[in-house]
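Example with several molecule types.
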Amino acid sequence: MSVVRASIQREPIEPDRVLAEVGSDEDGAVLLFLGVVRNHADGRSVRGMHYDAYEAMAASEIRAIAAEAARRLGTDRLSVVHRTGELAIGEVSVAIAVSSPHRAEAYDASRYVIEEIKKRLPVWKKERYADGDAEWVEGTVPPLATERAR
Amino acid sequence: MSLSVKTLFFAAYRELLGTSELAVEMGQGATIGDLVRELRSRGAPFDALPEEPAIALNRAYAATSEPLAAGDEVAFIPPVAGG
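Resulting structure tokens for the full complex:
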């Protein structure tokens, strides 16, 4: 099942446009999830986030994730975009729009996409703190292809 | 006979090694695991790489038992943190 869009981009994400890419006359549920840079982490004040990616692989992996969600949840009205580069507080790092005839499929597909992004998309983020320090955010070890195929 | 592969390093690994890309010569029949051991045996800072890092072979996650071929792109993937 081919989804509307699944991509990585350096330019700012426009949520309205991502949302407008889904929806159809047969869909009664339209859902938009935004991941946004927040101003705190573990009690420290954060002033921005740098996103680094293995762009060639991230582009194919995000398409694979979206296609899995579409196949499992039965809706191809799904658009997902992940941002890279320097982001300020409040900027959108990821947008996921999905529509389906009923709400359950849309919620499940959206949740599947964000959870898989966190597990396996080759993207890293460095928090820039108010005190001038910066650290890579502790991540998740991605599962091997062989483990996923089981 | 040897084969040359392109290794890629991202995020914390790139900063650790001070480079994002390195060509490595390996013997015929070498696996991803052999490549990791070869790099780690070079001493600092390479020995700070994990013994069993996540690896992507030609842009797909791969087991360390997989054999290498000339021209392969082998990426060392630190724990991921997208979203």
